[in-house]
Every structure is written in C-alpha cells, then in structure tokens.
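Hey L., structure's done. Input below.
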Amino acid sequence: MELYVVLKVVWAVLLGVLLSGLAVMVGMDMGVGTLLRFVGKNDAERRVVLNIIGPHWDGNQVWFILGGGAIFAAFPTLYATSFSVFYVVMILLLFSMIMRPVAFEYRSKVDTKKWRGTWDWAFLISGALPMIVYGAAFGNVMQGVGFHYGWDGQYYQDESFIFYLLNPFALLCGVMSLALSIQQGGTMLMLRGEQPIYGRARKAAIIGGVVGVVLFIIGGFWVAHINGYAFTGPVDPGAPATPLSGQTVAPVVGAWLHNYAAYPILWVLPGLGVAGMLGAAVMNLAAKPVLAWWLGAIGWIGAIFTTGASMFPFLMPSTTNPSQSLTVWNAAGSQYNLSWMLFFALVFTPIIICYTSWCFYVMRGKVKVEHVADDEHSY
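Output:
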C-alpha cells in the first residue's frame, strides 16, 4: 500500500481521536454549564458548580482547536466546504462559545440576583447549544448535504441551513450529544461536589446516560432505513485531492451498514458505545463516579467511531451530486503535509494528555461552599 494512502487512513483515525477528545473534555464542561441552574438552587451552590470546572474549562478548549485544526490541515477541502455549508450554524456556535468565557468572568462581579441569573442563562445556552450542534452535525453529514462544485472547483450550496439542521435524524443526534454531555458533566460534579449538589448531579447523570443509550440504539435502527452512499465504480485511494477526481457514487438505502457486513469486527464499536453509556449510568447509580466518568468517555468514543466506521471512507456526501462527495481519498492534504502533521501530532498530543491529567490530579478534591466564599479569586 502506498505511503500516501496509509497517511490518509491514519489521519481519518486521528480525526476520530481528536473529535472524541473534544466530545469528552469539552462536552463535560458544556454539560456542567447546562446543569448549572438545576443542580445549584442558590447562588452559593452555583458558584461551587462553576469553580468545579473553573480551573479546567479553558484548557479543555484545546481539544476544540485541535479538532478544527486537524480538519483544516489534514482535510482542507472538507474544512473549506463544511465551514461554508454550515456557515450560519458556525456563527450560532461561535456566538454561544463567546458567551461562555464572558459569563465566567462577569457573573460574580455584581452581587444582584438579576445580574447573576442572566449569566446563569448564558451558561445554559452556551452549554446546551454547542452540544446540540455538535451532534446534529454528525446527523447532517450522515444524511448528506446539498452542495456541488463547478467545473473550476468553485463550491455551491444547494439548500438552506434550516432544512439540513432542523430535520428529525439530525435533531435526534443533537439531543443524544446533549444527553451524553449531561452525563459526563453530572459525573464530574459528583467527583468534586458535595451534597446536595452531588445528589442532583447524580440524578441528571443517570438520566443523561439512559437517554443517550436509548437514542443511540434508535439511531442505529434509523440508519438502516436512510440513504447512505456507496461507490458504484472503481475506487482510487491515491486519488488527487479534488472532488472533481472522477469517482462515481450513488445513494443507497442502508449503505452505512455495508462496512459492518464486510468486516463484522466493527460491531465492537457500537457495542462499546452502548456498554459505555449504560455502564456509566449503572456506576453513577452505584455511586462510583470515577468508573462512571471513564465509562462515559468510552461511550462517547464508541459512538463517534461507530459513525466513522459506518461512513468510511466518506467524510461529507453530496446529495446534489453524489459523485462529488468528499471522502478520505479526495479531500486530504498532500503526502508531505500529512507526514509532518503526523510527526507533530505524535509529539504534542501525548504532551497535552499528560499536562491535562496532571492539572486534574493537582486540582483534585471536593469544592466546598466555604472555599468559594473565602477565595477572592474564585468565580
């Protein structure tokens, strides 16, 4: 197999790793933000909740940058097209993300109920909306997106964002993403919070896990009855990085299950997803949040890699002109680019994992109301 083809496959897998890291780490923080008004019944409790993730939330955003950066550098055609297709969605996402750091810094600056209540709503919106968009994006690309390219490679969008964003399957994926973030966020609050926050967070985490696994299973059956995409002609994994490379693709009902029929070992991935989500709910029920957190992470990884395995090698199919669908083969960067990126990824990703782990280790322990009240630097 050519080195270029190997690098394309490696980067497809690494993209899944980075998107999983984003889901687990950023999703955890977003889940806490979503739960803020529900697990904290007064101002002191809400400040405790914010200070549980306060030392980590901005560092966890590194995974957001890594995910976007990997798409930008490893699959530049996908980056350019997807960020154009989802332009309005991206603006909504960025607006909600911008609200988040401002809310952290300004919420406790004024000691009035109305002021802090307004910022608490900002936390809910900036926590729930990005996770719904994140999950809906997976649902959108699985169904295909209306775009095509002209003879000169110019991109054209063929449908309104309302139709590809607000469709039932995408909304199911969005709600599932939100449920898993609530599970992960609730588990984090159990790890570092005390009663009554602990009990409320535990209930939310259990509900999130159960809802997540139910929607994941429903989505699996749903996928068997929607259009997937399949090659109908010769496939060249070493194809030039252009959507005009001459591939032939057609929509086929149930095509996203073809890889599982060809390689039954892939059923391990949805199995991990179900086991992780359900196992996390059980561990939270048993008051074992450490195990629940790791099982929740496995649930996220299983779900994301299940999607990737279903679609491989497709990245973003086109409903308008299926033969111009973006794949791992025709949307990747150059061999030189992918080689150097792989080197830096192998060096810096472990470093990020190590310093993140060290930060969580150093700042372990329960956050108490008196700690927040006595610390002028707390949120």
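Residues 3-39 form the longest helix (37 residues). The longest strand covers residues 227-231.

-- N.
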